[in-house]
Amino acid sequence: MSAAQAASSVVKTPLREEPVENPYLPYPVRIDDITVESEDRNLKTFKFVFLNPDDERKFAYNAGQFAELSIAGVGEIPIGIASSPVEKGFIKFTINKAGVVTTHLHNMKVGDIMGVRGPLGNWYPWEMLEGKNVLIVGGGFAFTTLRSSIIYMLDPANRKKFKNISVVYGARSPGMLLYKDELIAWEKRDDIHMNITVDSTNDPGWKYNVGFVPPITEQKAPQGDADSYAIVCGPPIMIKFTQPVLEKLGYDHDHIILSLENRMKCGIGMCGRCGIGRELVCKDGPVFTLAQVNRTPKEY
Amino acid sequence: MSTYTDKIREIAQRLLKECRVEMVIGFRQGSMPMMNEPCFVRKPEEVDRLVWDSNCGINLANYLTNRKEKIGIVAKGCDSRNIVTHILENKVKREQLVIIGVPCQGMIDKRKIAASIQGEILAVSETGGQIKVKSAGGEKSFNKNEVLQQNCSVCVHRNPVIHDEMVAAPVAEQTDVDQYADVNAIEAMSTEERWEFFEKLLAPCIRCYACRNACPLCYCPTCFVDESKPQWVGKSQDPMDVRTFHFLRAFHCAGRCTDCGACERACPVGINMRLLTKKLNKDCLELYGWQAGLNLDSRPALDVYKANDPEDFIH
Amino acid sequence: MKVIKIDKSQWSQTLEKIRGAYRLFGPVKEKTFHNFTELSDGQSPDLAFQNTRLSPKSLVFPQSEVMLNYSLDEADADHHVPKEAPKDYSPRAVIGIRPCDAKALALVKMNFDTDQYKDPYWLNLYNATTFVGLACDAPCGTCFCTTAGCGPFSEEGLDVLLVDQNDHYVAKALTDKGTQLLQKTGSKETTAAAIETAKIAAEAKITAKIETDNLRGADMMALYKAGLWEDISFACLNCGTCTFSCPTCWCFDIQDEVYRKKGVRMRNWDSCMFPIFSVHTTGHNPRDSKLSRVRQRFMHKLKYFVDKYDKGIMCVGCGRCVRQCPVNIDIRKVSALMNQLGSEARCAVKGS
User: What does the pLDDT average to over A191-207?
Assistant: First the structure.
């Protein structure tokens, strides 16, 4: 249907007694800054500012949630929120150029107007994690909500709520690591144990680990126990090989927390697309424990 | 027809027992009058599932695409022509197949019967050339020739063109049929009339793609309507997008379609989209003397160049 | 609740009285089958039908529906900022919806009306509509509503139940909305006595069944991993006939379409039978086989939904998919197989 035809439908007085909030309407935002994150230039971080200041309050989120980035005339794409609830005045997303919407987004510029719809989905179980050791295992560009989580936990108001925080984060090469300045800053702190790794590098000055995430996790990550949880986010192959390592380290399946991805459209549990078993990844997830995932068809 | 069924079972059992095939693809009795379900049999003791009657209109060549097993397949005339096309287009290998040929006397059109019956059809049986229909409104008999699918009534390739086994002696081919009367009628229309005709023809479409998916030719891993980079066609019910789908699909079948009728038969809203493919069949016949899937030795019309190919349609 | 009698000789006059306050929708025969559509002035619904070819879900959930409008013209003040598309949510009445289809809408409401989110488009249309159901006196041989939590005189999801009594209709209001509609008719009140007799007679005519009693207790992963799916799915063409004709299937796709500088965000029916339904941008498809897609459809209807809501199966027994599947895949047969396996899977758990 052409837009012109669509817009000309008859308008009578709506019956609606009180306005229902339309969950398909994005909040308008302006692109405030764009940072190229990776040497292949396929990863960029977009910083958005809400056009209506009140929308930022409505967008209150937790680390681990995602949002639909919404570009009029192109479409929407679900992306994990890379900024942290403790960061105010903006929201940030790191985007891999892959499909129709992300390719279009990569060609947009500072000042352009688009939309953000959310926050959507559940989040890492922060209340449950209080008083516990937290191990974060991330790979590639799936480090976004993990960055949000680390910033959240390291915030002076929050750090004391958690015991030891350890991180294993890997990428193909040094140039593919996200948020390099922050990684270096965290590396220097003593309230977080960083284990940065790359699959391989020619850089003689590289002072961190070389190797895939699973073996580095096996060598460097702390043992699991009743007081320890692991949050894992990365490409499917990394998750597959990290799982037995975490088991060996003593992490129970209900102490291993995963963030799943599936094809989504509505993001609010209506369109049915991302269903796995009786769960909808967009609304009942994206965060599930491995124990939950084991009881569900592996259709993600 | 029961002799066909017996013979199909006998051949299927032998092929499976002798391990000449891993599976036999055929039809099993449906749960509704005038409906059978395509099925496979892997064990000799299961061949009694297989049936044959005048409700086997789905084209079984559709079930061969990209399969790797050794397969016995039950094939009427049109199925066999699509098997030839599948082999030519590298969708299955001749060596994989044991073709169980069925000389066909046409499939019955359940919609035609439903339209001339009061109330719901409860049971349909077939003896000789007679179709007996039991309905809420009583019983009625039809001569099978009166209730054939339209494509079957003008079919000139009822016998399998390729086979390894035959369930019966070949039947006489029809010679005295006007194959393209319906296409001629459309060609005779003015541009405006034709436009209106196609508009009405395709208006009920719900884009369920049953026609495309029932077609053995439509095996593209991603159909052009499903492409997103670039997106060629809109996804809504806009009539322009609906027509684009049907017209382009028909062109994609040019020189390949055997007029098996599976598309029309599968359509839940009764659209005769065969009119589109038939026009292209007619062009292929008239321009290149080509009919799809008659033998393994000649390449399809759109796959070869000849110096004397007609070109007056190029403007 | 109010019960009235409408003489058939007064039927079109009665409809005109209702039309004064409602836009009317009803079954109309197009060529060889019936479908629901808006009734033009003076047009009566054609109630001589068993059921419509397509379900009436499109009345509240159009196959293609504009959700948002926007401008891409930077000269416009609100360019690139989508707004809710204006719609006509004035009162509507659907005359002649079958009880199974009304119950289906009530099931689908659980998807669109949740604590967390409400779908404004579906809900506004649903709430604007008064459903006048036509009880089934002559169900199809493929109807299995009585074993699918429904029935030929089922009242769930209806505002009015209309029962054909040869020379007149008995109309029974089931909700306040229904009472309001019946008040417009000015017809005289009667008793509901005749309804019960007709109901018993109609229910007795339904012989087809769906077996579901073991599905609730069955082990989900055992059903999922069962060996029955290859045989069930073999014939499937992966077309959308079953999902599009089904009154309880609600999956949709969202698309942007632009014409010059004006654009819309719209939704279109989608189907779990289509390979692209679940394919990721990377090309990875979690349901990359016909088997996995067919299994998804039946598991969703007969197991996942059952477990998620505890309101029975996501099927009302209208039989459309049975009648229209081009290759005769029959949900009754599939459910019987799952149900049988469900009893085994449950026993195994108990025994262990």
Answer: 95
pLDDT of residue C346: 67
Is residue C182 within 8 Å of C307, Cβ to Cβ? no
- Are B238 and A99 a contacting pair at CB < 8 A? no
Give residue B311's pLDDT: 84
What length is written for chain B?
A: 315
Please list every residue in chain C whose beta carbon sits closer than 8 Å to the beta carbon of residue B36. 328
Residues A241-259 have pLDDT tens digits of: 999 999 999 999 999 999 9
Q: How many residues does chain C have?
A: 352
The pLDDT, as a whole number, for residue B306 is: 87
**Residue with structure tokens 């005779």?**
B188
Which amino acid type is present at position C242?
C
The tokens of A140 are what?
């590639």
Name the closest residue on chain A to residue C299, using Cα atoms: A277
Q: How far apart are CA A253 and CA C60, in angstroms?
A: 43
The structural domains of chain A, ordered by start, are: 25-120 (2.40.30.10), 126-259 (3.40.50.80)
- Average pLDDT for chain B: 95
CA distance A94 to B48: 60
Place of tokens 């719901």: B120
Instruction: Give the bridge partners for B166, in sequence order.
Output: B101
Nearest-Cα distance to chain B for C17, in Å, is 32
Is A1 within 8 Å of B237 when comparing Cβ atoms? yes
Residue C32: closest C-alpha in chain B: B115
Q: Name which of A104, B246, A9 is nearest C69 in CA terms.
A: A9
> Could you give the ipTM of this predicted complex?
0.95
| 8 Å CB contact of A1 and B229 | no
Closest to A72 (Cβ–Cβ): which among C255, C263, C281? C263
Q: Where are the domains of chain B?
A: 1-107+155-176, 110-147, 178-315
Backbone angles phi, psi at A160, to 5 degrees: -70, -15
Mutate: best of C327, C329, C330, C331, partner B, most B CBs <10 A: C327
Give the pLDDT confidence score for residue A12 in this predicted structure. 35
What is the per-residue pLDDT across B68-87, written as a single tens digit (0 to 9) for each?
999 999 999 999 999 999 99
Which residue of B229, B231, B236 is in closest CB contact with A1?
B236
Minimum-distance CB partner of C251 among A6, A11, A273: A273
DSSP C303: I
Q: Mention every residue, 6+ apart, whose C-beta is less than 8 A from residue A55.
A: A27, A28
Asked if residue A137 lies in contact with residue A217, where contact means CB atoms within 8 angstroms, the answer is yes
Q: What is the pLDDT of residues B173-206, one digit of tens each?
A: 999 999 999 999 999 999 999 999 999 999 999 9
Q: List chain B residues with CB under 8 Å of A2.
A: 238
- E strand segments, chain C: 3-7, 23-30, 33-38, 64-71, 83-84, 92-97, 129-134, 160-165, 168-173, 252-259, 262-269
C245, C142 in Cβ contact below 8 A?
no
What digits encode the pLDDT tens for the residues A34-54? 999 999 999 999 999 999 999
Q: And the tokens for A176?
A: 């593919």
- Contact between residue A100 and residue B229 where contact means Cβ atoms under 8 Å apart: yes
Sheet of A209-210: strand order equals: A209-210, A193-198, A165-171, A133-139, A228-233, A256-259, A287-289
Q: Are C289 and C234 in contact (CB under 8 A)?
A: no
* Residue ranges of E strands in A151-216: 165-171, 193-198, 209-210
pLDDT tens digits, one per residue of B260-284: 999 999 999 999 999 999 999 999 9
Pair of tokens at residue B7 = 């013979």
How far is Cα B68 from Cα C45, in angstroms, rounded to an integer?
A: 53
Residues of chain A with Cβ-Cβ distance to B238 below 8 Å are: 1-2
DSSP type of residue C189: B
State how far the Cα of C295 lies from the Cα of C31, in Å rounded to an integer: 35
Do C335 and C216 form a contact (C-beta atoms < 8 A)?
no
